[in-house]
Give the backbone structure.
Amino acid sequence: MKPRKRHVVLLWMLLCSGMTEAIEPISTSIAVGMAAALTGFLASYQNIFYYFHECCRPEWIAFNKSVASVLVNAFDPITTTVFVGISATLGRTIYNYFRESCDAKWITFSATGLKADLDQKLFGQHIASRIILKAVSGFMSNDNPKKPLVLSLHGWTGTGKNFVSKLVAENIYREGMDSSFVHVFTSELHFPHAKEIETYKSQLQQWIKGNVTSCAQSMFIFDEMDKMHPGLIDSIKPYLDYYDKLDGVSYRKAIFIFLSNAGGEGIIQTTLDFWREGREREEMELKDLETALSLAVFNNKKSGLWHTSLIDKNLVDFFVPFLPLEYKHIAQCAMSEMEARDKKPDPVVADQLARDLVYFPKSERVFAVKGCKTIQSKLDYYT
């Protein structure tokens, strides 16, 4: 090939590489697949270059030179360099396309999605649903929050605290709870030994600082706060306060969620009083529970929030009560689980499952002891 023709080929390759940005997603997916296949093929045949570049090998000595010369000239050093450069760029592009990153492609809040999930999947929690929606929506719509969002969710087991955390994550992060920017800590797993509390404090600070440095919009979920060693959570107080930056790192766009059974007894008693007075539970408001809840948590020596400065300094934005669940809510959970399994919801099955659970107080059988926590496993028995 003459020099002029080489230049035409080179120009054609460069123009094609520039056109890739205009290709629609489907074509891009096909191209990515072809590139992956080509890469695997080249890796399997490491000597394939010698089939295109003349050298002192039997294959070339035996070939018809008039035909082989076309292939040799088509891959001269300049063109080969361009090909390698394009391949490297394509490889980086493919890697970045599939790797989760801290940007709008992977982190986008859906207020309508969160509202729909809370309305359709969370049962018997009108107070929690309203607070979570307003708190998260307001925080995520603020481009310059003054402090991180700090939520403390309280209630008896099986009432939906972990489930709500999951819904929030799914409506912020494309990967939901599997996102590399969502971090879950459980007391018994991550902080099991009281004698190691000073080490845990240092590790916890480093974990949070490192992750927020990587992505400002990180989420931290602390489960089993009622089992956490008192004083440990105070180590992260500076990160929850009103600071623009600490050591060059801003924590103001992060979200912290604490989950705890602490305060559950008070929530149950208030809800039971409403029931005994013949009042609808939907009449209950946050003001009926919040003050008593925060005091109960603050003064509970078995709680990780016992006498914590997070409460004393008003760094917890909302104490969110989760009410104990009644029979009708258990039936709704069962119907929802059947639908999630792509099965036709069966009211008869849901009714039977809900009736067979254990309720308290024993004489009145008002609230389910385990809430909706065991619905998934029990449904296998009834279907």
Remarks:
- Strands lie at 149-155, 182-186, 219-223, 255-260, 318-322, 359-360, 367-368.
- The first helix runs from residue 3 to 19.
- The longest strand covers residues 149-155.
- The chain has 17 helices and seven strands.
